[in-house]
Amino acid sequence: MCDTCDRECNARVLGDAEYRFGTTRVAIIQGDILQPKGAEHVQVVVSSDDNYLTMAGGVAKLLRTSAGDADNGRSYRREALECCRQQAGPGEGSDVSSTRCHLKAGAVARTRPYGLTERLEKVEWVLHGAVVDLDTEDHELEDLVAMTTTNCLQTAETLRTKDNQPVESILFPAFATGLGGLDLATCARKMCGAIKAFLAQERNLKEIYILLHRKGDGQGSGAAEGDGQDLEAAEAGEQANQRFIDEARLVLGVPYDPGQRIRQIRDFYGREPELDHLAQVLTHQIEGKRHAAILGGPAIGKWTLLDQLYYRAHLPGHELSVALQNAGQRLVKMPFGRVQKNTPLSFVYQKFLCAMADEGLLEAGEIQDYLADPDLNCDTFLEVVRRLVGKGEPNLQEIVFLVDHIPLLMEMEARDSERQGFVQEFWQDLDELQRGVRFVFTARNDEFRVLRKRRLENRATDFLESLEIIGLGSIDGRQRRCWVCALFKDYYPDYAQEPLEDFYSFFEEQAGGHPTLMSLAGHALIKALRVVTDEEDHRGEAMRLARQTLDAPRRELFNYLLKAIDRQQARDLQTLAQAVAIEDELALLVRDLRDGDPNALRRWEELLGEVNPREYLHQETLRELEDDGYVVRVNGGSPDKGAPAQPLERVQNQPLSGRSRRLPEKVAVHRKAPGSICPGVFSRQPREWLGPGTEGRGH
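^ thats the sequence. predicted structure below, dont judge the formating
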């Protein structure tokens, strides 16, 4: 266990079939959907049906007959069909034609519970999910399961109780595993994947249940006691349900996979100094600073920090939330997506107003006239802000906009920089805007250098003077240990009580100090530990499996970085990767040289005859890459400082058999070189991964 980590246990895995995501609990239970033990209080029940809502079998039939004993559920079904014509729910599959009497596959209709309240006293809504498509074969059944699960969750998030409070609990059946014929493991993977993605952010729903049918539960399913065939069927059912539970554990019981690029607030470790720094800026503790820029290289965690800031600011009772409330501040998120040239200035201010409406600070009706105004500008926007601050909710003094990737605005500017009414005018508005609002934004280091030089230094000098820079780079050895310790406290509390030294070494080897690789390694290792629980050397086997799993995402990250950084940095990164690959190969040859292998000796001399790629590296570029967290300094460094030793240092000055001599001086040139790739990112890249253009080194 990490003796430097004082983080409280925040267990995400509460049991074999129970998980926690922030304030929401997810539980897998077994039994009868009309008598769900432990979930009798649910407010929303989900019915699994086809897109014509025939309610002819399985859960759908059971709910229909229980909802309307008097008329065999005709009123219940009539309301659902009427919903098909009148209701368009949220989500991808929810566009409902007003001229047709069926849903699009994957969509959701909602109805009152009718007679279901006799069995489930607290239920207020029934959601009918169109899991089966009777019209087309456009989607695989398992994909419809995921789509319907997402749409049910999104619909439930908007529902209100009779007391006009958000509903907080929902009960799902295992979609399509009855008449649909979908195997339970696949259903678990798809349903739990959709639930996990939905819970990446904090939600109104606080309890989500998935009910697995158990043989002998429910109307008409009881078996005569002692019947061998029924007992055999019940045992098979238990085994099938266990497959669902086991598969769900591999989804819900592991960290989020960074490769899926889900914006999530759950798996956040470290960066506490940076968050404290942001809080000091926002709460006026740093004199003269009103705004903050979060700077770092690609994939270093800039928007993750921004999302965590927003989450903590809205978490009741959190220290940051209380401080911002006392200061009268409200945080408003405003991301930018696809951009295009010649974007009018009015778009920026329309986006500000829409973000404020999304946050609940403005009603949509209040801003319609502004949104329709093609000449909307800074003065008009500030009028809205001043009116809101003066007459809005109690203690509202300032609005803080959290803007992800603000340099994208430069790409929206008109091609003719002198044209009026386009986005380029926004930069000169910043000095005026800061009188009414504040900004926290993210940018890559290289993009901010351009933005500062070309726009801020000559158009927004006051804004620039009041801007606090918060840099993000790689994490050091102590931070890495704390990260690993906190990860195991969350996902494997039992392991957190045991020595973690082998796992610390695994993360140092595979991730170094890069946050994205730390997240990738954490996901791979925790999942591997859950897969190999029956292995005798399960820790060693899990790390071996995790190393294999990391090969593909490491390559993907390498390729992404080469596209994201500028051309000179990419060339030097490729050259450095080539140098490390040579050094790794030399290290691997040492054992064969000791055995007197002539082929190894021949290859050794070939490598030593090549020019050291490090001689062509630009030290200034390496320093920039080091600031971004992709290069670590090893000359005089130590693993505790996140600067691992060079590959050949461990065999320096050791005699070699065959030709008894010390390592040639040329190898020492490699060893003493001041820069090395951050471990796990590139140090194990095969040379053929380096991409085109790496053979010519004369740059």
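The two ends are 47 Å apart (CA to CA).
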